[in-house]
Specification:
By secondary structure, this protein is of the alpha/beta class. It contains ten helices and nine strands. A nine-stranded parallel β-sheet has the order 6-5-4-3-2-1-9-8-7. The longest helix is centred in the last third of the chain and has 15 residues, at 226-240. 40% of the residues are buried. The mean pLDDT is 96.
Length: 290
C-alpha cells in the first residue's frame, strides 16, 4: 500500500489567523491545529536558516503520532554556495536536529533558483554527497561546526532510508542526463505547478512522488478550482497505484517506470490569500472518497 500525504508548505502566516486558524488561537498552538487538518507539513524555516534540535523535537511533539514532516534544505547550499564547497554546510544541516524528529521525518526538499543551470558533473557530485540513510546522515553530522555539537544533534531513529527531492526552476534541467542522475540515486524530481512560470515535468525517478502546488493560475496566490483539484486527485491516485498518467509531461520518455505502488507527498504553497490549507483539505477529502 502506498502512503499519500496531502499538506501545506509552512504553517505560520499572519493572514491565516482568524480565517483558517480560529480567532483567538494562540500562536504556539497553530502547528497543533494545522497538523490535525492535514497529514503532512513542509518545514520551510529551515530554508532560511539552521534550526535547532530543541525546535525540531518540539514540532514533532506537537503533532499526531502518524504525522510526517518534510524539510526544506538551506538556501545557503543551493542559492548562496550553489553547490560549491558545501561539505561543511551539508554537515551543519544534518547536525541541526532534523534527524531528531525520528519517524516523523519525511523527504528532504532541495530547491534551486531560476538562475541555476544544470551542470552534469557538479550535480552528480552533489547527489553523491546526500546521505542515503540516517546512519550516513549521523556520520556526516559529526563533521559539522563545533558550535552545532549540542545535546540531541545526533539523535535519530535506528538506521532507515532518507528520501530526497529536487525542485528545478531553469529550463536547462530539461535534459535526459539530469533525469538519469536522479534515477541512479533514487532522488525524486519535484512535480511543481507554478502557473507556467518555471519548467514542469512529471518524470518518475524514485519510489515516491513529491508535488508542490504553488498556484493554479497565479503563483502563490490563486486557489484551485474543483476541476483543478479533480485533475490532481486523478494524477495522485494513478501515481500511488504505480501507474503514470497517459498524458504525463516527461523530460525523458525513453525509460517508462516500473509499475509499483508509490508514496506521494503533495504540498500546497498558494498561501498568500489563505488558499493552501483549504485546498489541501479539499484534495485530501477527494482522495479519501475515491
Amino acid at each position: 500500500m502506498s502512503d499519500v500525504r496531502i499538506g501545506i508548505s509552512g504553517w505560520r502566516y499572519a493572514p491565516w489567523r482568524g480565517d483558517f486558524y480560529p480567532k483567538g488561537l494562540v500562536q504556539h498552538r497553530e502547528l497543533e491545529f494545522a497538523s490535525r487538518a492535514v497529514s503532512s507539513i513542509e518545514i520551510n524555516g529551515s530554508f532560511y536558516g539552521l534550526q535547532t534540535p530543541e525546535r525540531y523535537r518540539k514540532w514533532a511533539a506537537q503533532t499526531p503520532e502518524d504525522f510526517v514532516f518534510s524539510v526544506k534544505a538551506p538556501r545557503f547550499i543551493t542559492h548562496v554556495r550553489r553547490l560549491l564547497d558545501i561539505d561543511e554546510p551539508l554537515a551543519n544541516f544534518f547536525a541541526s536536529g532534523l534527524l531528531g524528529m525520528k519517524e516523523k521525518l519525511g523527504p528532504i526538499l532541495w530547491q534551486f533558483p531560476p538562475s541555476f543551470r544544470f551542470d552534469e558533473r557538479l550535480f552528480a557530485d552533489f547527489l553523491a554527497k546526500l546521505p542515503a540513510d540516517t546512519d550516513q546522515a549521523r556520520s556526516l553530522a559529526r563533521h559539522a561546526s563545533a558550535r552545532l555539537h549540542v545535546a540531541g544533534y545526533l539523535d535519530a531513529t535506528e538506521d532507515r532510508p532518507l528520501r530526497h527531492a529536487v525542485e528545478i526552476r531553469n529550463a536547462s534541467f530539461c535534459d535526459p542526463a539530469f533525469i538519469e542522475l536522479l534515477r541512479q540515486r533514487g532522488v525524486a524530481l519535484v512535480v511543481a505547478d507554478t502557473a507556467g512560470k518555471w519548467p514542469y515535468a512529471e518524470d518518475i525517478t524514485a519510489d515516491f512522488l513529491y508535488l508542490r502546488l504553488h498556484g493554479d493560475a497565479e503563483l502563490y496566490v490563486s486557489g484551485y478550482s474543483p476541476e483543478a483539484l479533480q485533475h490532481w486527485q486523478q494524477r495522485i491516485a494513478t501515481w500511488a497505484a504505480g501507474g503514470q498518467p497517459d498524458d504525463a509531461e516527461l523530460i525523458d520518455a525513453s525509460h517508462p517506470p516500473r509499475r509499483r505502488p508509490r508514496d506521494v507527498y503533495c504540498y500546497f504553497d498558494n498561501d498568500v490569500k489563505v488558499r493552501a490549507p483549504y485546498d489541501a483539505r479539499a484534495l485530501r477529502e477527494l482522495l479519501e472518497r475515491s
